[in-house]
Design brief:
There is one protein chain. The chain is of the alpha+beta class. It has one domain: Roll (Nuclear Transport Factor 2, Chain: A). Helices cover 30% and strands 41% of the residues.
């Protein structure tokens, strides 16, 4: 993978402006919600992903992904870090470990797989 691909993944996942994130994603991008999530499913298209992220933002205002590591996994890029924000009901700070295994075509992200267990993501990427 090239530095440009790592930049595309990092920029998409850390974008706080959904329109800015759109420039790094293929219009038909797939987003696989973590298997542990009660509403696990695969979203198709950037608009569906925006809706999903907006739902999370209403539950976790100030939500953002903070990458700790972005790794070249051959044909894919693995970003490991945490999602943080403030609980809408409680006002308590929330921080959850998460990893995203991303596939690209050219300079556009075409698939994102969420993992709530970063070790599982490392295994899936062949980096464990």
């Amino acid at each position: 993978m090239s530095w440009g691909n790592i930049e595309a993944v990092s920029s998409l996942l850390t974008a706080t402006d959904r329109q800015a994130g759109r420039m790094w994603a293929d219009p038909e991008i797939e987003w696989v919600i973590a298997a542990e999530h009660p509403e696990s499913r695969t979203l198709k298209g950037y608009e569906a992903i925006e809706d999903y992220l907006n739902e999370w933002e209403s539950t976790l205002p100030g939500m953002r992904f903070v990458p700790e590591e972005v790794l070249d996994a051959g044909e894919r890029i693995l970003a490991i870090g945490s999602v943080s924000g403030t609980g809408a009901g409680s006002g308590a700070g929330v921080e959850v470990p998460i990893a995203f295994l991303c596939s690209l075509s050219g300079a556009k992200v075409i698939r994102v797989e969420e993992y709530l267990d970063p070790k599982q993501a490392l295994r899936q990427a062949g980096l464990a």
